[in-house]
């Protein structure tokens, strides 16, 4: 497997006068839809793409519900999903309320099978 990357110049937002530095940035080669993923899974198993799609649709429905209930969703070797919060700081613990919360983020931590693949990626520079 090979991931394409490009080079991008980025300035320092804290110091606009400083010289830009160059970074690598992954370049997508396309996207795969939920239906296409279901068909790929079905091709590797004894389950039909329709049945696979039903299971994936169930995951799409239940994953956010469980996250919203404050649970970490553990998907075995795939990885874990959990919620994190970004909030304003307060001077005392008593001053912290839900009003301090500015936004939330869904975090994914890759499981061992995903990490195994990610650790073996080759990178190819593109223009």
Structural description of this entry:
The chain has 127 residues and is an alpha+beta fold. It has a domain at 72-118. The protein is 29% helix and 32% strand. It contains three helices and six strands. The protein has helices spanning 34-43, 49-68, 112-118; strands spanning 2-10, 21-27, 73-74, 79-87, 101-110, 122-125. The strands form two sheets. A three-stranded mixed β-sheet has the order 2-1-6, with no helix packed on it. Strands 3-4-5 form a three-stranded antiparallel β-sheet. The radius of gyration is 20 Å and the shape is flat. It starts with a strand and ends with a strand.
TL;DR of this structure?
This protein has 127 residues and is α+β, with helices and mostly antiparallel strands.
Outline the low-pLDDT stretches: none
Largest sheet, if any? Answer: 3 strands, mixed
**Overall number of strands:** 6
Order of helices and strands: EEHHEEEHE
Give the spatial strand order of the biggest sheet. 2-1-6
Give the SSE map.
Elements (H helix, E strand, L loop, with lengths): L1 E9 L10 E7 L6 H10 L5 H20 L4 E2 L4 E9 L13 E10 L1 H7 L3 E4 L2
Parallel strand pairs: 1-6
Antiparallel strand pairs: 1-2, 3-4, 4-5
Helix pairs in contact: 1-2
């Amino acid at each position: 497997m090979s991931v394409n990357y490009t080079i991008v110049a980025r300035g320092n937002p804290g110091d606009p006068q400083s010289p830009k530095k160059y970074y690598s940035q992954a370049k997508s080669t396309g996207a795969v839809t939920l239906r296409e993923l279901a068909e790929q899974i079905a091709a590797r198993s004894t389950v039909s793409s329709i049945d696979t799609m039903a299971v994936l649709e169930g995951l799409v429905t239940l994953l956010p519900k469980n996250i919203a209930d404050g649970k970490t969703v553990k998907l075995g070797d795939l990885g874990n999903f959990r919620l994190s919060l970004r909030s304003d700081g307060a001077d005392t613990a008593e001053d912290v309320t839900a009003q301090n919360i500015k936004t939330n983020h869904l975090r994914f931590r890759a499981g061992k099978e995903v990490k195994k693949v990610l650790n073996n990626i080759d990178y190819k520079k593109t223009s």
